[in-house]
Write a structure and sequence with these properties.
alpha/beta, single chain, 207 residues
Length: 207
Amino acid sequence: MPSVAMYNMEGSKVGDINLSDAVFGAEVNKSVLHQVVVNYLANQRQGTQSTLTRAEVRGGGIKPWRQKGTGRARQGSIRSPQWTKGGIALGPKPRDYSYTVNKKVKRVAMRSALSSKVAEGEMIVMDNIALEQIKTKAVAEMLSKLEVASKALIVTCDNDELVVKSARNIPGVKTAFVGCLNVYDILNHDKFIITKAAVEKIEEVYA
């Protein structure tokens, strides 16, 4: 059973917390992690890019010159793809890039991502993150005392508006709550800062 140190907002260690083997001590499956990350990025694509075909470009209704006798290659429109300002052949059109991944695969990926953070010593458990008001300085000081100087993901049990708004202006820092946690965000941040209540919620869902 993995065990990590638990800190308060002052950066002081207040004890240790034992984590579930099934969630935070699982074998890291890199193949599944790759599959789920690629799926997440594909689902984020808007797919709104569009180019004009020769039928959609304005103009080009008349034949540029007669078919024979000019010595030049035959042409039917000045909006053909080989012409400057002509249409685009085989260009992108609006499409949906999203696809689904099996739920069991997603669960394995989530366990692998969480376990990798514990194994690499990048997980920091907080006894609680309580703010009295929206104040960026409070979160910045907390990160400084925890010696977090790189990209960090702060996870709370529920959607805490005070934490979200206090951290949103800090470069490299992102907030999330257990209900919207995803594998990409976990892997994309160097430090995984999570409250004790959020750990218990994750163990309840994924154990």
